[in-house]
Write a structure and sequence with these properties.
This protein has about 300 residues and is an alpha/beta fold. It folds into 2 domains: about 230 residues, Alpha-Beta Barrel (TIM Barrel), CATH 3.20.20.60; about 60 residues, no CATH class. The chain is about 50% helix and about 15% strand. The chain is built from 13 helices and 10 strands. The strands form 2 sheets. It has an 8-stranded parallel beta sheet with strand order 7-6-5-4-3-2-1-8. Strands 9-10 form a two-stranded antiparallel ribbon. Helix 2 links the parallel strand 2 and strand 3. Helix 2 packs parallel to helix 3 and helix 12 packs across helix 13.
């Protein structure tokens, strides 16, 4: 899930274009991009599209299907879940969760809905870390329920109300680091925030590159022009692949000789480095980001 393209639920004419495009995932949105007056129609639009995907599975085009609902504390959350927990949905994206209890409440409601619609399926949860409270309790949120698949950073919501500039580098690095460690503690993935300046491709690339170095698996996109940038940023480079091959080969030779460590390019290599190198090679073969691949293997 290198790239996730947001599409407003109120713009059904964009659905087929998004699913035909190169994004790894499509997030059908019921929250910020949809006005209060359009919420009900947006739900109907999404339900109609999900039914069409089930009838014509080729339209899915291999995408991860996400629906971003409205927050637990809003009057729209229950209606969003009732409409959109149905076959074909992989993840429910939950904005601004404030407590593990809220996460469990949403999971319990999903369980009820699944029982009548999709008894063999389990919809996952992608939790947004976009308030100071959520960042402070990120690990508790990530471990709140077995449905949680990942944490998604939301920098504009996190920074701007507090008077922190969205592009303040020191703040971005700290928020990414804390979110990634919380996700690591829970054994789930971390996903990077949207980048609002559509015209600033270089800025998008820089932030995506930082996120990848921080161990994030992909980046949210608010415009189709950002998708290729995200896909490129979250794939291993030729240099990384070559180094990973050398590490794995050297580790295999060391293992055959009964040694737990080896030296590659003058650097001592032990188990954590071998694990990362193996994941990079797996990503090369499957086009799945390394952290996501390890997570998927753990889930199976």
């Amino acid at each position: 899930m290198r790239s996730k393209l947001f599409v407003p639920g109120s713009r059904p004419e964009l659905f087929s274009k998004a699913f035909a495009g190169p994004a790894d995932a499509v997030s059908l949105d019921l929250e910020d991009s949809v006005s209060t007056e359009q919420k009900e129609q947006a739900r109907r639009n999404i339900v109609d599209w999900l039914e069409r995907l089930n009838q014509e599975p080729e339209l899915r085009n291999g995408k991860t299907v996400i629906v971003r609902i409205n927050g637990h504390d809003t009057p729209h959350c229950q209606d969003d879940l009732a409409a959109c927990v149905r076959p074909g949905v992989d993840l429910i994206n939950v904005p601004k969760p404030s407590s593990p209890a809220q996460v469990r409440d949403i999971s319990a409601e999903i369980t009820k809905l699944e029982g009548g619609r999709m008894p063999d399926g389990q919809v996952g949860l992608l939790l947004n870390i976009e308030t100071p409270q959520a960042l402070r309790h990120a690990a508790a949120l990530a471990t709140a329920d077995a449905r949680v698949r990942g944490l998604q950073l939301g920098l504009a919501d996190l920074f701007e109300p507090a008077g922190i500039a969205r592009h303040e580098q020191a703040a971005i690095e700290q928020a990414m680091f804390l979110t990634r460690l919380a996700a690591a503690e829970a054994g789930v993935y971390a996903y990077d925030a949207a980048f609002s300046d559509i015209a600033d491709a270089d800025g998008f690339r820089r932030e995506a590159a930082l996120a990848r170095r921080m161990g994030f698996i992909g980046k949210s996109c608010i415009h189709p022009s950002q998708v290729a940038l995200a896909n490129d940023a979250f794939m291993p480079t030729d240099q990384e692949i070559a180094l990973a091959q050398r590490i794995v080969e050297a580790a295999n030779r060391a293992r055959e000789q009964g040694q737990g460590v080896c030296v590659v390019d003058g650097k001592m290599i032990d188990a954590p480095f071998v694990q990362r190198a193996s994941a990079i090679l797996g990503a090369k073969m499957s086009a799945v980001p390394p952290v996501a691949q390890r997570f998927n293997q753990r889930q199976r």
